[in-house]
Amino acid sequence: MKNIPLMNHWIFCKGFEESYPFHKISGETVHLPHQVKEIPLNCFDEEIYQDIYTYQKEILLPPKEEAGQWSLQFDGVMVSAEVFVNGLAVGSHQGGFTPFTIELPLSVTQENPLLLTVKVDSRENPHIPPFGHVLDYLCYGGIYRDVTLVFHPEIFIVNSKTDYVLSDRVLGEYSHTLFVKNDTGETRLVHLKADLMKDRDVVASLEKEQELVPGESVLTLTGTPKIPVILWDTENPFLYDLLISLRAEGVEDTRSIRIGFREISFTEDGFFLNKQRIQLTGLNRHQSFPYIGYAMPARAQQRDAEIMKNELALNCTRSSHYPASPYFLSRCDEIGLLVFEELPGWQFIGDTQWQDKACDMLESMIRRDWNHPSIISWGVRINESDDHGEFYTRTNNLSRNLDPSRPTSGIRFKEGSEFLEDVYTFNDFTHEGERSVLIDPHTATGLKEKVPYLISEYNGHMYPTKSFDQEERLVEHALRHTRVQDHARRDSAISGAIGWCAFDYNTHYQFGSGDRICYHGVMDMFRFPKPAAYFYSSQISPEKNVVLEPSTRWARGERAIGMMPPYVIFTNCDAIDIHYGEESLGRFYPDRQRFPALRFPPVVIEKPLFGLWGSDWRNVRFSAIYKDEVVKTVLYSKKPVPSTLRIHADDLSLNCKSWDTTRVTFTVDDQVGHPVSFMDAVLSVEIDGPGEIIGDSQVSLISGRRAVWIRTSPGECGVITLKGQCRGLVSKCIKIEVTED
């Protein structure tokens, strides 16, 4: 098998005419991933990108070294695509979240070069999931994931699935199901081999010879190696390399994947990974970014996984409400972030043809992703939809037949919903601040017996919170996340809770704040944290990272009645000392009475500490105490003024083989290093070298900060330099190297 990426130098234009597939068109040169229209950050009409567009690329086929067939693999085109080669219609696909492959007829590939034309319809089609009713997220439009030209020999491996049984860390029964296609037109003898490798050494090998009839076949390699293996888990996500090869006379094909060995189970007493109970603590994620929606390359997708695992200290996420990017999932495998993946949809179930498409999407998702050790459950129910016994019996059976190694789940928000899945997953929006935090699982399920139970959403629309909201709202937003996670841990029958959500996101006009943004995240769209993020990041051992995050802007008049309590400090340390000016106010401890189930409760102070309205206002110092020592100190100024413009890049080295990206953040800090929260001055970003800014180069600060993503140009190496200016402040100049490596 030979893969040739088709990511660079496409011609793109709005509209489509019947003559386009027959000749080169005029248009803009673009590179994949690509969104049909760059959109504003907010305050836009979501119909501005919903139209018909054309992508075109000339392909020069390399000489064939053996008999075989060329195909085109599209990882994601939103919403539907019609594909032409040299004027011939060769295939089509509906649905933007799942991949599709188009085999090219031999008559077409005998011509060289090829003129590839893709007609993209980005309009929301009610006959295609997830559309048909209102939808609380945008789907944008375009060829937003990878496109690859693939050469297959006459006999080739289409897909493979690895299954195994573990016994006390020993690999017992072990099998590889191979989906193979024979295009020779005759029965052939093939030799199959699967080598399991650890650090480039083969530790187990299975092989056999078998006659292969023409057409598609399913073959199996099975053995019992009985070798010890390193288990994959959230703390040590060890991955093995698996090389599968197929050989016949004059034919050879190989497939390389990475796998991890682990045992998962959802029970009435919680979720177990490798026989150890783990409380699932996670946040839902939309894969969207400012200005270009879903059309972000590998690095940005991988970075989101790293933020969730390393900055937010989560152990799981849900790919709401559609299959995630393959790059995101692979990074989850590498860093040990568990994933609940689900089929596309939102509350609506269409007619039988719509349901057929949904089942096709579910099957495609499972077949694409079944070798990822990070995935722990398949979501087989349209998010928050009503019961539909016939449809959901079908989706459950489909999932169980394709992959019995993972339990099925189904997202609902109505109590007593029909339970057809293996795990009862429930969106619990009970908590409104004053009311009870979570309902009892028996009440949610309507069942007398205990069943595997997972909270798949909470908070979100119940308390939207902007990063520039009043401090009291930000603190309450954080406490609502804290309360739910504490209560979820109090009941061993609750496997965990996945909050809504990680990042703010663009949405339709029926939702959000009227500006096409849902402010439901614990981080904003630029991945800057709100105080709620600090609750999650504090749930990690101080031996790994000391957390001290007072939830305050430290301004007398920011809160009602002049800085009234509660004062909430998120920390994983033993205690907090507070000095108001030079006066010691005492030592304060995590609130274990209010949050008994949390590993690291926040410090919550209910009594007024800092005087009344009109009294003196001083500097303040918070000191984190761990093992009787001060391990971290945070200062706030009584009189903050803009002092520096801080610049930071997530990456200092990028690639130019195809377009690459990194986030660059700008923060106006006061004299002790805190963002000047309400500074909304204009930030001007200057860039030089082989790159450009995605979106605007002149923007308003939001809560004293702003981020941009920069985009490289394929084939252009060198050094990108960036700096920012804002109201007389000039940042340092940062340099990012762009290479072919």
Structure overview:
The longest helix has 20 residues, at 471-490. This protein is globular. Strands 24-25-26-27-28-29-30-31 form an eight-stranded parallel β-barrel, surrounded by four helices. Strands 3-2-4-10-7-8 form a six-stranded antiparallel β-sheet, with no helix packed on it. Helix content is 12%, strand content 39%. A hairpin with a 2-residue loop joins β21 and β22.
Number of domains: 5
CATH-defined topology of the largest domain: TIM Barrel
The CATH architecture designation of the largest domain is Alpha-Beta Barrel
The fraction of residues in strands falls at 35-45%
Relative helix content: 10-25%
Shape: globular
Family: Belongs to the glycosyl hydrolase 2 family.
Domain Glycosyl hydrolases family 2 sugar binding: 39-153
Domain Glycoside hydrolase family 2 catalytic: 267-541
Keywords: Glycosidase, Hydrolase
Offer a quick outline of the entry.
With 741 residues, this protein is mainly beta.
SSE inventory with pairings:
Layout: E1 2-5, E2 10-14, E3 28-30, E4 52-59, E5 68-74, E6 77-78, E7 80-85, E8 88-94, E9 100-103, H1 106-109, E10 114-121, E11 142-143, E12 147-153, E13 155-167, E14 170-182, E15 188-198, E16 201-212, E17 215-223, E18 227-228, E19 240-248, E20 251-259, E21 264-267, E22 270-273, E23 276-277, E24 280-284, H2 298-311, E25 316-319, H3 326-335, E26 338-342, H4 352-369, E27 375-379, H5 389-402, E28 408-412, E29 423-427, H6 441-445, E30 453-457, H7 471-490, E31 494-499, E32 505-506, E33 517-518, H8 531-537, E34 548-550, E35 567-571, E36 575-580, E37 583-588, E38 603-605, E39 620-626, E40 629-636, E41 644-649, E42 653-655, E43 661-669, E44 682-688, E45 691-693, E46 698-700, E47 705-712, E48 718-726, E49 729-730, E50 734-739
Parallel strand pairs: 24-25, 24-31, 25-26, 26-27, 27-28, 28-29, 29-30, 30-31, 42-50
Antiparallel strand pairs: 1-12, 2-3, 2-4, 4-10, 5-9, 5-12, 6-11, 7-8, 7-10, 13-14, 14-17, 14-18, 15-16, 15-19, 19-20, 21-22, 22-23, 32-33, 34-35, 35-38, 36-37, 36-39, 39-40, 41-43, 43-47, 44-46, 44-48, 45-47, 48-49, 48-50
Helix pairs in contact: 2-3, 4-5, 7-8
